[in-house]
Amino acid sequence: MSEEQQRDQSTPAAPAEPPAGPQPEPIRFFGTTWVDHTGGYAPRRAAVAVGSLVAAAIGAYLLRLAYQGLEIGNVGPFLSISVIVLFAIATAIAFAKTWESFGRRPAPSSDEAALKGLKTIGFIGSLLAYFLRSLTEAPGEKLRRAEYERAAAEYDRRRSARTGNPAARRRPKRKK
Q1: Is the distance from CB of 119 to CB of 94 less than 8 angstroms?
Q2: Which end of the chain is more exposed for a tag (fewer CB within 10 A), N or C?
Q3: What parts of the chain have a pLDDT lower than 50?
């Protein structure tokens, strides 16, 4: 290898400049492929749908095993029914909150942090919401697309309002 080739390989490439304007926010499992639906977007969406449904089924099976453990332990009907009702309510709340999060961002002072444990208990609801949303779009795509298009339109509006370097403008002559 010549000295020039070694020098070309050893010098790092100049970092690419970030593109001007707003950048799309990546979505988990999709990155930024949701913008133009390229880069394996459709197979990813199918995989996310199948994966979330399989994970929900496995979770339901594990909860069934836990319930059977309660039955073997002979804890009584009150506790058995209470556990079923608790998981049903937690699953319904987790589904509703997850579905809601696909359409709008939570307020900074919202109760999302307080509901984190409840959403963990009702994880099957979150997985089912993820499955249903991924049948039509990447979960959260509609919200991020609206935000991205709004930011791009605002950026274009700001860029088009500029007419040049303000320091280079001539000042109007004053009458004496």
Answers
A1: yes
A2: C
A3: 7
